[in-house]
């Protein structure tokens, strides 16, 4: 079992935080935010969400907010992508191996206990990331999310 990466996308479709975990070193933080892999990851999630909304058939505002969290995870032959979207359209994504089933509670913890605490409630931290160059560099957020993810039993 392994966790490969953790990403956050904002409401402007920008990757504002990307943490990749590596078995050989400490991994990277915010190095691959503007790469094609981040854009493809967002595109896949966005497309699947749109497919779900089309299949649901009802386009009212109430149903759209409930549809946003219909997509919880999907898998390929190599990995599984776990997805959580907040009411403010922040998208939290964790990529793991296929043996890990459900990480919704972990994604909720990352949003409610770490993002809200260190980014939303921090007056010195940016809340609205308007350009592709603006990223999360808050050291408290980075250190605490790293410690939390690395303390999970599924992290190897």
Account of the 3D structure:
The chain is of the alpha+beta class and 156 residues long. It has a single domain, classed as Beta-Lactamase. 37% of the residues lie in helices and 19% in strands. The protein has 4 helices and 6 strands. Strands 3-2-1-6-5-4 form a 6-stranded antiparallel beta sheet. A hairpin with a 4-residue loop joins β4 and β5 (80-85). α3 (104-120) runs antiparallel to α4. It is globular, with a radius of gyration of 15 Å. The relative contact order is 0.19. The mean pLDDT is 83. Its main location: endoplasmic reticulum. Belongs to the TRAPP small subunits family. BET5 subfamily. This is Trafficking protein particle complex subunit.
How would you describe this structure in keywords?
19% strand, six-stranded antiparallel beta sheet, 37% helix, 156 residues, alpha+beta, Beta-Lactamase, 6 strands
Estimate the global geometry from the Cα principal axes.
Answer: globular
Kindly report how far apart the N and C termini lie. 6 Å
The CATH class is identified as Alpha Beta
Task: Write down the Rg.
Answer: 15 Å
Which series of helices and strands comes N to C?
A: EEEHHEEEHH
Strand content: 15-25%
> How many discrete domains?
1
Summed over residues and divided by their number, the pLDDT gives a mean of: 83
Q: Uncertain spans, ≥5 residues at pLDDT below 50?
A: none
Helix content: 25-40%
Please report the total strand number as a whole number. 6
How many strands, which pairing sense, and closed or not: the largest β-sheet?
6 strands, antiparallel
Total of helices: 4
- Kindly name the structural category: alpha+beta
What strand line-up does the widest sheet have? 3-2-1-6-5-4
**CATH architectural name:** 2-Layer Sandwich
CATH topology: Beta-Lactamase
């Amino acid at each position: 079992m392994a966790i490969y990466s953790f990403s956050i996308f904002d409401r402007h479709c920008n990757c504002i935080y990307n943490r990749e975990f590596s078995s050989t070193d400490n991994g990277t933080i915010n190095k691959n935010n503007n790469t094609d892999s981040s854009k493809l990851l967002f595109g896949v999630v966005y497309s699947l969400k749109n497919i779900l909304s089309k299949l649901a058939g009802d386009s009212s505002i109430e149903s759209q907010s409930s549809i946003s969290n219909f997509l919880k995870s999907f898998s390929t032959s190599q990995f599984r992508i776990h997805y959580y979207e907040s009411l403010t359209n922040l998208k939290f994504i964790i990529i793991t191996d296929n043996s890990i089933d459900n990480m919704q509670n972990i994604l909720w913890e990352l949003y409610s206990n770490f993002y809200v605490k260190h980014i939303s409630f921090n007056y010195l931290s940016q809340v609205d990331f308007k350009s592709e160059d603006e990223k999360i560099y808050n050291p408290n957020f980075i250190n605490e999310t790293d410690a939390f993810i690395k303390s999970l039993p599924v992290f190897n």
